[in-house]
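Entry for the shared binder. Reason: the reviewer on the internal report wants the predicted structure included alongside the sequence.
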Amino acid sequence: MELFKKTASELSELLAKKEISAVELAKDVLERTKAVDDKVGAYITIAEESALAQAAAVDAKRAAGEELSALAGIPVAVKDNICTKGTLTTCASKMLYNFKPPYNATAVDKLAAHDMVVTGKVNMDEFAMGSSCENSAVKLTHNPHDLNRVPGGSSGGSAAVVAAGEVPLALGSDTGGSIRQPASFCGVVGLKPTYGAVSRYGLIAFASSLDQIGPFGRSIEDAAMLLDAITGYDPTHDSTSVKTPFEGSVRANLNPDMKGKKIGLPKEYFGEGISEEVRKAVLAAADSYKAMGAEVFEISLPLVDYALPIYYILSSAEASSNLARFDGVKYGYRTPNAGDDLIDLYVKSRSEGFGEEVQRRIMLGTYVLSSGYYDAYYKKARAAQRKIKEEFASAFDKCDMILTPVAPTTAYEIGSKTQDPLEMYAGDICTVSVNIAGLPGLVQPCGFDSSKMPIGMQLIGRPFGEQELLNAGLAFEQASGLKNIIAAL
């Protein structure tokens, strides 16, 4: 039946009607993975045995007449920086090459509570530091729409595995665009929730004040289903998590009516550096919203010009602190070449265990936090962050949501930017401000370029405005027909 071609919501109906079994579905997507993942390179660990066992348990519950979640039996892949008990969680780094967590992330426990079938762990930029998935110490992941191009990063494996038809849903994490940019490059739906909406417990930290777990799917409804599953207050494990106004109810309340909605187009996001094909596709989406009855107008967010340096100062500072725990002593990689000197053990283990990009950001973060530079860089960046939050708050006094491009270009060729880190960083210009301000951001496909590569658009909402964003996303999806885009591999 080629079940791998169906969306999660379609599969949910088939399962509920007992037209297919969870085991049949799991076998179908695992066969698809065996057929294409050698080309795509999305998975680090394929959990075939446990996935089939989970699927069999779901079928047994359904046969016994138990009431099940709409997501029961639906396969899902998990980014390799989200802890899974007893299953390798490497952060795509040599430093954690053999780490099997003794616990689950809260988000993974929530997947289990909904009886979802975890098919394995997927590739990423090492410790989530990168925009192309080329910084993995494990393998190279390719864009399923063109195997010579990057899938985006850092959640490149999560986006690629959904776009390749290997799994209908995936979890990723977003620190500065790491869900949204790969979603755009791979032609899938990706949502970065409001900071605090999803527990970060068990997410191996890059920058704790910016990181957020979020869903990937092939349709707006699919993303809403997975968001419903993972949101929730987690007072035991994550003091930054909060109760959300939409908890568990987004899918049930999806409403594509756009009449009277106000959408802002920030002129700073459509200026120099944005390719003409990307600009045209996003503006065409704006015209589509006008045709639906929405009011679309230009706004200005001048401070976002400073978002990129603010982001790299703050995120690198937090990374230098968070990654200090990986020292070759307690777990993970330890150099075999250290003598009796403890400092030598630290230096060699970290030098050999961390990749070039991770070392670069640790060095930058240590520098901006050091005596004499803290006030000049880190303190100023924090002050500027508050100003950006205020600027977005003012913008939302005028509009309900903001429409922007996701990245300056579509997916670029593998290796084309690896020699120039600053050029790679510049690709995050449209996404980092959302994390800086703690806002939700939704990405979905809005067209294709002349090379037939997907183009994504980004909708930014008020804090905890996920329902409104997904409503608008559904309206565009229905108008454009752009959903369930699976690469022809």
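Summary line for the report: The CA atoms of residues 251 and 267 lie 32 Å apart.
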